[in-house]
Amino acid sequence: MKSMRAFSLAEVLIALIVMGVAGIAMMASLWMLSGLFTQTEEYSVAQQAIETAFHAVGPQISNAGLGMPNNKEGQGSFAESFYSSLTPPVMAMMGAEGQSWGGPVTLATSPDLKPGSFVTATTTLPGGRTVYGGTVLYYAWSAPTGVRVRAVEFPGREIAQGDEVKLQFADGDVGILESFQYDGREVGISEKNSPAASHASTRRWITFPTVRAPFWLSGWDNGGTPGAGGSSQVNSAIAVMAPESRMSFNRLLSRYEEVHLVQACRLYLQGDELIQEFFDTGIQPSDCTRKILAQGIVGLYFTFDPEKRLVTMYVAARGGNPRISEGSAPADWPGFAPPLPAEARKYRILTSTMRWRVRN
Are 180 and 187 in contact, with CB atoms under 8 Å apart? Predict the structure, then answer.
């Protein structure tokens, strides 16, 4: 009879309690693992957006100002070098003429290409250091074309401001300059990058790295058609340099200098998209080329330290799926930057920072 005795009520209750506790623990573990998987997936989406943004602009910002005029003693000579009554004030938008701050990087409060939007106030970092700050970054750099000058003609013994310089290239090189592409974008020297545009109305700033002075390429030599077996000279490259008191220029343009095409763009946030807008051929909307570099970006801020020559980019990106309730802003988002929008806090947010040293 003893071997056939059933479980007692106490034993059954104990077994149910043990199984319940084990089940609850298992469900909690599965719930936690599911949450961690979702969180990891969300942060991976945000991290990918941040890395895409940094990868797209990093090489350009790190080369800002190379082969271009120096911003001598903070006197605004960089912007002043690109002013000309014969050209639109494209590169001049990198800073106001005669102002104490102007260089290959400029910060602004809105992407409207108006000097009034450029940041003149300063931001204090947590360590007490004072820097410039803004939500829009303008920067300029020069892209090498591989085309070298074979001969140079200019009046006098040195090139002076406003002198016309005739640049002679090898046959076929002018065609390269016309159809030159950068980052998948047609940036040739014809007006509005149109093959049908008149050669006499070219619109392009060019530089030569060892000379560090900008030239406005205003037209082709009248002696023949470029690259067609006749003359392959480009005429009327106007050297638009800052006044001698602002920038020293005592080196002659030598043969076999490589032509660099000046590039200028701005970065800003529109909705949750990181926008890069090129304006190196003009400031009208029809002249600008607009690219979406990354999506899911909910915060963007820049600082520029003029003493250390450091550009810092702060980026906040979100995951793909919203939560039911609004969360708090990340603790590592800088307090001196504009707060992240409330709508963005419904997502998991990841922040990151990147710095580049401007070598000019």
Answer: yes
